[in-house]
């Protein structure tokens, strides 16, 4: 009987604990719903939230449609543009006391050196209000932030990518399994590199090569008469037409139409030396003195919620870190979800986006400027 | 001209100081609008601190600019490309303007419109169209010609110095010359030509020794505008020159601006050289036209009789038509074709044609909003610009205002700032000037920006036409008791109407196509069609960008047809054709 009493007591204890936890969750979700309602009402009075996003019409259309359907009465003004233009403009507006933008979504480089370095962003934690957004367990790797103080930029995407594509009529995939294969004299004049002197996937690959293959390797690669371009379309066309045998740094979206048209272009499997980790444009920062504080909170919690992250991943193919969003399918587009394939420690080894790593990469960038043709 | 100015000086001194005050106010407004952006640009060329540091001034930007690798080669390429195409375009432009305005060539109105059309087409898809034809490895024309037994090498290479010159000539340089020169040629009294022929000169001799000197103000304006624009050109050079290592000044500036972080000080240092070049060119223009009379429309009657071409009429017509078709029909056809292709230029894939590009663009909620914004910016800047530029031109040409030379020079300045930097300079101007802050982020700030940008072309075109109007027309009106306002609106404006319409149309087209000036000033709600085209092009969706490009072309062609219909009713007309 004493044994039964012990089991009974354990059962009661667990039942009470479980019910308390459920009650707690329900209460916090309930509290959040109430707060969201108040925020939404206040946001409707503000009228809109203004977000600077990467140049993507698909992201613009999908996000605007979904958010405005969820929150009618709050206008979502999305301004797609390159990060360097937006950074300049937002900074100049800030200095003049003009506040138009609320939020910036973008790549790591401009975020760290420009937005955080320019002291024009607010700490992000105060904006994470919804329980599912605030709970670090819902994010692979917990809260991830690329700035030094880990306070200002919330990184919500994480993936591995190399973006090597080849012309199937000119080379075979088993001829290109290592970075060393790119030094094959047969490929001289036939390699296109998305200009690594500019922010983007080309720079990421160059920096990875510098870190893991060294300076002599890069000198050998530079001697291959690389075709450098800042235009993804031109490079994709050159590969499809056979002017090039391999391209480096051009993303799936540069090739999508060519793949759909049945042209002889294909993504190479990852090289045996591995590749680098990045968040792409999946970093969020809230601008200081943003003009629509309530609408900003509503938007941030929507974007970082399940729906927002699904929309982000689908339209950009850049896998989110949210554990409840399926990202296994993104590999066919050349983006390998970090949360599905590697550990957090491995991520910390291969990522190239945090402030410390970016500082290290300055040498690689100077090398690109000196080795590559002007 | 100076004799007339002296009489005007006496005339104005006798009147109230009101006009002088108004002209001073005009000078102040123009000076503010053009000198502040210029000053900010030059000032920032000396700012050497990074954007996150406190401001520090120094010469580092200038050192980096003028010691950067390849800068001398870029300068050489810039000038040789500009001079080559401007010289060719000027010769062709003068001949075409004379043929269209002064001779009995058939279908002159339609031919003139075709040359206008070449100016309307956006440069990027036009260039890609020519690459499709003339790429040395894959160009369709080269492929067809290689089928011929006596051709073993591709005869054309678009990626070359002359390839760049050709695309510029075809894309806009010839079209702009026709656009600017034809109204001026049309305003010439035929009695000058008749006197020349009666004295024994042939048609060509009359063109060279009578018409061209009389048209010198308009020719000089077209030349300077063309030269300055050529020095700043970079879109075509980026596509055709950079792959073969042929850099120009503006591609160097472009590289600095898009660097991460952007290197504005050296970019602005490099672009300051445009100001020096502009100073020289404007000084040459003022020196050439000083002390001379260019009146061709006066109070003693106006003859607009056409020169008969005789037996050369048909061959000349065919030659002009072929040229017009080459530079308009071909790019227009390929531009339109591109919108229906899955992949522009790929004819041999399975099912190359699709309506999906049009469907996706027309279903994008932003397209009609952008169309509305484009219409507002175009109309707003066209109307405001024409009003402002006609006043400026009047003061320069017709008044004795002591500072009219300063006003003339100031009106050129916006073109001394390359487009990619003008937007930046205007952003700083508007953010730094309290009166603009309420308008910041609205459509009105885009209108102000476009009025500033198009000031040189607008003012100079109206000015060159105004120089052709004799003073006796105004004097007769004033002697009859009309006020200055009445004379201006009832005598001058009707005579200037074709030119004003042309200028209004040019401003409208510039506003519809402009990217670099407005990209930093537009918001999500004031986005124009050109910025939407940029959005698609930036993310590699070239076919959708081409759809928006075609919509822009349809838009501006409709505006041009309306302008021509209105201009035809009120302008100076030739005798029957």
Quick summary:
With 374 residues, chain A is an alpha/beta fold.
Overview of this protein structure:
The complex is a heterodimer of chains A (374) and B (577). Chain A is an alpha/beta fold. Chain A has helices spanning 2-46, 57-70, 83-95, 108-116, 131-134, 201-212, 215-222, 232-240, 252-260, 293-303, 306-316, 338-341, 344-350, 355-360, 362-371; strands at residues 48-53, 75-80, 103-106, 121-122, 154-155, 159-161, 164-167, 191-194, 227-229, 246-248, 265-267, 276-278, 283-287, 336-337. In chain A, strands 1, 2, 3, 4, 5 and 13 form a six-stranded mixed sheet that branches. In chain A, strands 9-8-10-7-11 form a five-stranded mixed sheet. Chain A has a three-stranded antiparallel sheet with strand order 12-6-14. In chain A, strand 1, helix 2 (57-70) and strand 2 form a beta-alpha-beta unit. In chain A, helix 1 packs across helix 10 (293-303) and helix 2 (57-70) packs antiparallel against helix 11. Chain B is built from 25 helices and no strands. Helix content of chain B is 71%, strand content 0%. Classes of the chains: A alpha/beta (374), B mainly alpha (577). Chains A and B meet through helix 2, strand 2, helix 3, helix 4 and helix 8 of A and helix 19, helix 24 and helix 25 of B.
Name a few traits of the molecule:
heterodimer, A: 374 residues, D-Maltodextrin-Binding Protein, domain 2, five-stranded mixed sheet, 15 helices, 46% helix, B: 577 residues, mainly alpha, MetI-like fold, 0% strand
Q: What is the name of the CATH superfamily of the domain at 48-296 and 306-343 in chain B?
A: MetI-like
Number of domains of chain A: 2
**Count of helical regions of chain A:** 15
CATH-level-2 architecture of the largest domain in chain A: 3-Layer(aba) Sandwich
Number of helical segments with 4 or more residues of chain B = 25
**Number of DSSP strands of chain B?**
0
Biggest sheet architecture of chain A:
6 strands, mixed
Global outline of chain A: globular
User: Which quaternary structure do these chains form?
Assistant: heterodimer
């Amino acid at each position: 009987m004493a044994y039964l009493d012990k089991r009974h007591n354990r059962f009661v204890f667990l039942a009470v604990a479980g019910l308390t936890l459920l009650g707690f969750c329900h209460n916090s979700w309930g509290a959040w719903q109430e707060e969201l309602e108040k925020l939404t009402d206040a946001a409707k009075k503000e009228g809109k939230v203004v977000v600077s996003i990467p140049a993507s019409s698909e992201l613009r259309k999908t996000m605007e449609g979904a958010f405005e359907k969820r929150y009618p009465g709050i206008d979502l003004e999305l301004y797609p543009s390159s990060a360097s233009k937006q950074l300049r403009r937002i900074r100049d507006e800030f200095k003049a006391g003009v506040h138009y933008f609320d939020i910036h979504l973008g790549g790591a480089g401009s975020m760290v050196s420009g937005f955080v370095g320019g002291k024009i962003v607010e700490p992000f934690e105060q904006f994470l209000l919804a329980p599912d957004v605030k709970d670090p367990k819902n994010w692979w790797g917990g809260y991830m932030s690329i700035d030094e103080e880990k306070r200002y930029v919330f990184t919500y995407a994480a993936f591995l990518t190399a973006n090597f594509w080849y012309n199937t009529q000119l080379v075979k995939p088993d001829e290109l399994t290592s970075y060393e294969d790119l030094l094959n004299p047969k490929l001289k004049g036939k390699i296109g590199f998305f200009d690594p002197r500019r922010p983007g996937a080309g720079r990421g690959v160059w920096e990875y090569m510098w870190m893991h293959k060294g300076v002599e390797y890069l000198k050998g690669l530079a001697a291959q008469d690389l075709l450098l371009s800042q235009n993804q379309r031109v490079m994709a066309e050159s590969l499809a037409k056979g002017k090039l045998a391999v391209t480096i740094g051009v993303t799936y979206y540069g090739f999508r139409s060519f793949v759909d048209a049945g042209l002889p272009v294909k993504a190479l499997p990852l090289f045996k030396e591995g590749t680098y980790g990045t968040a792409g444009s999946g970093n969020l920062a809230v601008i200081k003195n943003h003009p629509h504080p309530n609408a900003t909170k509503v938007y941030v919690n929507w974007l970082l919620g399940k729906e927002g992250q699904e929309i982000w991943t689908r339209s950009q193919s850049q896998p989110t870190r949210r554990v409840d969003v399926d990202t296994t399918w993104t590999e066919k587009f050349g983006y390998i979800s970090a949360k599905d394939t590697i550990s957090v420690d491995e991520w910390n080894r291969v990522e190239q986006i945090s402030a410390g790593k970016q500082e290290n990469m300055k040498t690689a960038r100077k090398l690109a400027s000196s080795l590559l043709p002007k | 001209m100076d004799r007339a100015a002296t009489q005007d000086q006496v005339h104005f001194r006798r009147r109230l100081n009101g006009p002088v005050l108004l002209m001073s106010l005009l000078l102040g407004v123009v000076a503010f609008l053009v000198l502040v952006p210029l000053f900010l640009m030059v000032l920032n060329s000396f700012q050497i601190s990074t954007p996150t540091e406190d401001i520090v001034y120094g010469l580092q930007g200038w050192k980096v600019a003028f010691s950067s690798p390849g800068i001398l080669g870029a300068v050489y390429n810039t000038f040789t490309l500009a001079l080559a195409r401007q010289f060719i375009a000027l010769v062709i432009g003068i001949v075409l303007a004379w043929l269209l305005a002064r001779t009995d060539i058939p279908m002159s109105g339609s031919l003139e419109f075709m040359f206008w059309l070449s100016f309307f087409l956006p440069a990027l898809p036009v260039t890609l169209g020519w690459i499709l034809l003339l790429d040395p490895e894959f160009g369709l024309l080269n492929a067809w010609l290689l089928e011929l037994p006596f051709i073993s090498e591709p005869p054309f290479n678009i990626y070359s110095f002359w390839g760049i010159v050709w695309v510029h000539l075809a894309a806009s340089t010839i079209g702009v010359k026709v656009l600017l020169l034809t109204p001026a040629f049309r305003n010439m009294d035929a009695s000058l030509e008749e006197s020349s022929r009666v004295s024994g000169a042939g048609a060509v001799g009359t063109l060279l020794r009578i018409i061209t000197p009389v048209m010198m103000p308009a020719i000089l304006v077209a030349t300077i505008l063309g030269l300055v624009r050529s020095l700043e050109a970079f879109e075509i050079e980026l596509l055709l020159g950079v792959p073969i290592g042929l850099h120009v000044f503006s591609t160097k500036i472009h590289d600095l601006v898009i660097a991460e972080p952007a290197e504005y000080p050296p970019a602005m240092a490099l672009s300051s050289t445009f100001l020096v070049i502009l100073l020289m060119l404007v000084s040459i223009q003022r020196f050439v036209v000083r002390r001379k009379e260019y009146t061709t429309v006066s109070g003693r009657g106006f003859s607009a009789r056409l020169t008969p071409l005789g037996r050369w009429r048909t061959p000349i017509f065919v030659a002009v038509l072929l040229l017009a078709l080459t530079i308009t029909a071909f790019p227009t056809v390929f531009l339109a074709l591109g919108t229906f292709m899955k992949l522009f230029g790929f004819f041999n894939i399975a099912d190359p044609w699709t309506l999906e590009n049009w469907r996706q663009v027309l279903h994008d909620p932003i397209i009609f909003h952008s169309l509305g914004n484009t219409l507002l910016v175009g109309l707003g800047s066209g109307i405001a610009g024409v009003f402002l530029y006609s006043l400026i031109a009047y003061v320069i040409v017709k008044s004795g205002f002591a500072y009219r030379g300063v006003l003339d020079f100031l009106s050129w300045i916006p073109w001394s700032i390359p487009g990619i930097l003008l937007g930046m300079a205007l952003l700083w101007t508007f953010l730094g000037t309290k009166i603009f802050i309420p308008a910041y982020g609205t459509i009105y700030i885009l209108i102000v920006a476009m009025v500033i940008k198009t000031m040189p072309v607008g003012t100079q075109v109206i000015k060159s036409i105004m120089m052709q109007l004799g003073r006796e027309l105004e004097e007769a009106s004033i002697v009859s008791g009309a006020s200055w306002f009445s004379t201006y609106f009832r005598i001058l404006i009707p005579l200037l109407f074709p030119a004003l319409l042309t200028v209004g149309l040019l401003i409208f087209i510039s506003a519809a196509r402009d990217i670099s000036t407005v990209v930093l000033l537009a918001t999500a709600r004031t986005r124009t069609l050109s910025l939407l085209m940029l959005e698609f092009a930036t993310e590699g969706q070239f076919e959708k960008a081409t759809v928006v490009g075609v919509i822009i072309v349809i838009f501006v062609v409709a505006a041009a047809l309306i302008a021509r219909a209105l201009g035809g009713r009120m302008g100076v007309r030739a005798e029957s054709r």
